[in-house]
Amino acid sequence: MDNSKYLKKRLGFWSLTAAALGGVIGSGWLFGAWKAAQLAGPASIITWIVGGIAMLLIGLVFSELGMVKPESGGLVRYPRYSNGRMVSAVIGLAIWFGFVSNPPTEAAGVVQYVSKFYPGLYNKTSGHMTGSGIILALILMAIFVVVNYFGVNLFAKVNTFVTALKFIVPSLTIIALFSSGFHGSHFSQYGGFAPNGIGASLSAVATAGIIFAYTGFRNAIDLSGEVKNPRRNVPLAILTTIIISIILYILLEIVFIGGVPGKDLLHGWSGVNLRSPFMDIAISINLMWLYWILAADSIVSPSGSSFSYTASNARNVLGLAKNKFFPRFFDNVHPKFGVPTRALILNFIVGIAWLIPFKSWYGIISLTGILGVYTFSVGSISVTVFRKVGLSRGGTIKGMSVYAPLAFIVSSLIIYWDQWSKLQISIWILLFCFVVYFISHLIRKESGTEIIGGLWLIIYVAVIVLLARIGDFGGLKLIPEPWMSIIVAIVALGIYYLAVANGVWYMRKTGLDKSLEPEFNEGA
C-alpha cells in the first residue's frame, strides 16, 4: 500500500521558503559566528563564503531535481533511481544519522543560551549540559514532535510565523552592532586577519557548524511532495533560501568579529569563550533592549529550526521505508493528519541517543556536519544521470553541465578540509551504513546490479579517506597545500564522471530509464 497518497499538498512558495529558512536560521546563527571566529579569526568570513558557494551550487543541483521529480524524501529517492539500492541505502542512512541529530542540537543550543539566566543548566568549564539541562532539552524535543504530529497545516502556520520573527532578530542584531561598539581594528590585530592560517578557515567550513547552518534548505527538497506547483515553487524556495542565508551569515560574522569585547581577545581568537555569544556582546556595549530580544530569540530560532527539521527528517524515514531499508511499519502516513507519525516518534527516540552522550551544541555538530556534505554530493550524480538517460524534460537549469561537477568537487574539498580526527568518526558511520546494506542485500538475495550501480561510492569514500590521511588537515602532511587540494579536486572530477557512467549503466540495465519516464514527466 502506498501511504504517500495521504501526504497533503498544502505548502505554497512562502510556506516552503519558511520551512527552508526555518532550518537555516536556527542555532547556527547564534553559535556559528563565534565558533568560526574561534577557529579561524577574522578569516572566518572566508569560511562562510566558501560554505555559501558550495551550498549555492548544491542548491542549483537540487532545484533541477525538484523540477523534474518533486517527491517527499527526495534526498533518499533520487540516488535510488540513478544508482541503485546500495547508494540509496548508504546515503539515506547517513542522511538520517546526520539530520536526526538536528533537534537535539537545536535543543542544546536553547539550553546553552538560557543558561545565561539559569547557570545550573550548562557547565561552561566542560562545555556540556548538566543533568537538568539535558532534561530541558528533551522536553523541547518532545514539543517539536507534537507540533509536527498534528499535520502539515499546523506546521506551516506555526513555522511561517516563527520564521518571520527569527529573521527579524538577526537583521536587528547586524544593524545594532554595526552602529554601536564595532571595532574595525579587530580584523588586523590579535594575530592579523588569519591568525591560524587560511587553512583554518577552510577546515572550519565542516567543523564550526557552517554546513550545519546552511543545510536547512534541504527542507524544501524533503517536503517537495507536499507542495502546490512544485516545479515552480521548489527551485524558487531553495535558491531564495540559500541567497538570503549567505548574505545574512556573512554580515553576522563581520559584526561578531567587530563586536567582541577587547578583554575577551587577550588570549587571541582561540581564547574567545562566550556562553551566549551575541547576548554577551550586547550586554558589553549596554544594548539591553537587544540583549532581551536575543534572550527571547535564543528560544525562538533553534525551536523554529527544529520544527522544520523534525518535519523533513520524518519524510526521510518514509523514503527509507519505501526503499525497503527500514521496516514497512514506517512506510505509514496518518490518514487524518497527513504526516508520517511513526517516523516522527522513531526520530525522537534516536535523537535522545545523540543528545545524552555528546551533551552540547558543538559536540554534536562537529561530528555530523560532514555527513551532510557526503549526502548532498550525490545529487550532482543523480541530476546528470537523469539528463543522460532523457528523464529531465520536466525542467532543466542552464549551465547544469558546469554546476553539477563543480558542486561535486567543492563538496569533496570540504570533506578533505575537515580535520582528520573528526573525519574518522564520519567514516566509521558511513562504514556502518555499508555494513547494514550488505546484510540487507544478502538477506533479500538482491541482484548484484544494485551493488555494481554504486561501485563509484565505494571508490569515492576510500579515495577521499586516503587523500585526507596523507593531506595537510590533521593528516600526515606528505604533500603541502595548495597542491593537495588541487589533487583532491582533479580526483573528484574523475570520480564524478565515473559515477555518472555508473548511473547511466544502472538505469539502462534495470530499465528504469523507460519505466520512470511517466513519473518524471508528469505535469511537464
From TrEMBL:
<keyword id="KW-0472">Membrane</keyword>
<dbReference type="GO" id="GO:0022857">
    <property type="term" value="F:transmembrane transporter activity"/>
</dbReference>
<dbReference type="InterPro" id="IPR052962">
    <property type="entry name" value="AA_Transporter_AGT"/>
</dbReference>
<feature type="transmembrane region" description="Helical">
    <location>
        <begin position="281"/>
        <end position="300"/>
    </location>
</feature>
<keyword id="KW-0812">Transmembrane</keyword>
<protein>
    <submittedName>
        <fullName>APC family permease</fullName>
    </submittedName>
</protein>
<dbReference type="InterPro" id="IPR002293">
    <property type="entry name" value="AA/rel_permease1"/>
</dbReference>
<feature type="transmembrane region" description="Helical">
    <location>
        <begin position="83"/>
        <end position="100"/>
    </location>
</feature>
<feature type="transmembrane region" description="Helical">
    <location>
        <begin position="362"/>
        <end position="385"/>
    </location>
</feature>
<feature type="transmembrane region" description="Helical">
    <location>
        <begin position="397"/>
        <end position="417"/>
    </location>
</feature>
<dbReference type="Pfam" id="PF13520">
    <property type="entry name" value="AA_permease_2"/>
</dbReference>
<feature type="transmembrane region" description="Helical">
    <location>
        <begin position="238"/>
        <end position="261"/>
    </location>
</feature>
<feature type="transmembrane region" description="Helical">
    <location>
        <begin position="451"/>
        <end position="471"/>
    </location>
</feature>
<feature type="transmembrane region" description="Helical">
    <location>
        <begin position="43"/>
        <end position="62"/>
    </location>
</feature>
<feature type="transmembrane region" description="Helical">
    <location>
        <begin position="483"/>
        <end position="506"/>
    </location>
</feature>
<keyword id="KW-1133">Transmembrane helix</keyword>
<feature type="transmembrane region" description="Helical">
    <location>
        <begin position="337"/>
        <end position="356"/>
    </location>
</feature>
<feature type="transmembrane region" description="Helical">
    <location>
        <begin position="129"/>
        <end position="151"/>
    </location>
</feature>
<feature type="transmembrane region" description="Helical">
    <location>
        <begin position="423"/>
        <end position="439"/>
    </location>
</feature>
<dbReference type="GO" id="GO:0016020">
    <property type="term" value="C:membrane"/>
</dbReference>
<feature type="transmembrane region" description="Helical">
    <location>
        <begin position="198"/>
        <end position="217"/>
    </location>
</feature>
<feature type="transmembrane region" description="Helical">
    <location>
        <begin position="158"/>
        <end position="178"/>
    </location>
</feature>
<feature type="transmembrane region" description="Helical">
    <location>
        <begin position="12"/>
        <end position="31"/>
    </location>
</feature>
